[in-house]
Amino acid sequence: MIDFGKFYQQIAVGPLAGWLETLPAQLGEWQREALHGQFRLWMKSVEHLPALTPHHLDLLHSVTAEAAQPLSDGQVQRIDTLLRNLMPWRKGPYSLYGVNIDTEWRSDLKWDRVLPHIEPLAGRTILDVGCGSGYHLWRMIGAGAKLAVGIDPMQLFLCQFEAVRKLLGDDQRAHMLPLGIEQLPALAAFDTVFSMGVLYHRRSPLDHLWQLKNQLVSEGELVLETLVVEGDEHTVLVPGDRYAQMRNVYFIPSAAALKNWLEKCGFVDVKIADHNYTTSEEQRRTDWMKTESLADFLDPQDASKTLEGYPAPLRAVLTARKP
Fold first, then answer.
1. Which reaction equation describes what this protein catalyses (predicted)?
2. pLDDT tens, 80-100?
3. Residue of 17, 104, 187, 229 with fewest CB within 10 Å of its CB?
4. Residues contacting residue 51 through CB under 8 Å, at least 6 positions apart
5. CATH code for the domain in which residue 135 is found
6. What is the domain count for the chain?
7. Annotated binding residue at 140?
8. Domain extent at residue 251
């Protein structure tokens, strides 16, 4: 099982201390009643991984860990096999002692687009909502964050995060909790809150924006990355049963409409920082994620459209401040 005790100790003093009134009971209930059927098998793979401390650790340019002396072929193969037990790997990539996890998403490309537009992360306490395997948490630490906390209810992602953390020397600067944003109290304790690839999955997008705002300190920054469509401030796509084969996509606004939504929720200094069409360089099938990916979701006759006939995935980055 996962021991969250070190995280509790870390936040016991400081702006997150109030979270301890609810969090341990919440996670205790999760461990007793809400575990996925595969969870114990996934955690066995994590437990069998060697506890390694990297001689060289690069979180600034990538997530790369290297030993002082190369591991034996047998050691590398063992790590590779255990990590493959945690497939599919969607967010990355990771380079860990000669094992290169080529994930479905090149999350490093998204990070390179986001980072130039946001407040410096040095010394900040950060929340990453819908963090997946936690790739961006490590990049946040590489950018100087004091503490990076990720939340995501998908339990496979939690096991992937714990596997990577074990191979990074049990690094305690980043933590992941199996929670959704709606399960957090209004902490008003984070200097920066990231929500990347989440908004279009929310039935009530304005409620999501309010929930994000409730986690920020005054003058804290929201970094929002999401699907958008071309159009003016009144344009919002409400897809039918599926969008690019995803079932749970509810609202895809234009960037201009999303800027209005943020201002309606009380954010200030709202900026549209970046627009970018998703390409098969950034999202594709790999040896670590073998099921369908972006190329399978687009119209084979017209890559500017999804299979359903909607505009192909366009993503925007917006930044905003809580006054």
1. carboxy-S-adenosyl-L-methionine + 5-hydroxyuridine(34) in tRNA = 5-carboxymethoxyuridine(34) in tRNA + S-adenosyl-L-homocysteine + H(+)
2. 999 999 999 999 999 999 999
3. 17
4. 166, 169, 170
5. 3.40.50.150
6. 1
7. no
8. 4-322
Q: Is 261 annotated as a binding residue?
A: no
d(CA 157, CA 209): 23
Find out whether 101 is annotated in a ligand binding site. no
Of 121, 111, 150, nearest to 134 (Cα)?
Answer: 150
CB atoms within 10 A of CB 76: 15
Determine if residue 181 is labeled as part of a ligand binding site.
yes
Measured between alpha carbons, how far is 315 from 117 in angstroms, rounded to an integer?
15
Burial class (CB in 10 A: 0-12, 13-18, 19+), 69: exposed
CA atoms of 259 and 161, how far apart (whole Å): 32
The answer to whether the annotation marks 110 as part of a ligand binding site is yes
As given in the structure block, the two tokens for residue 228 are: 């958008």
- 315 annotated among ligand-binding-site residues: yes
Q: Read off the tokens for 65.
A: 């860990």
Whole-structure pTM value = 0.97
The reply, when asked if residue 196 is annotated as ligand binding, is yes
What is the residue-wise DSSP string for 145-196?
-SEEEEE-S-HHHHHHHHHHHHHTTS--SEEEES--GGGS-----EEEEEEE
Where do the DSSP E strands lie in 197-309? Answer: 216-228, 236-237, 252-253, 268-277, 298-299, 302-306
Specify the DSSP class assigned to residue 67.
-
**Pair of tokens at residue 155:** 């339990």
Task: Convert 70-124 into a string of H (helix), E (strand) and C (coil).
Answer: CCCHHHHHHHHHHHHCCCCCCEECEEECCEEECCCEEHHHHHHHHHHHCCCCCCC
Residues 188-235: tens digit of each pLDDT: 999 999 999 999 999 999 999 999 999 999 999 999 999 999 999 999
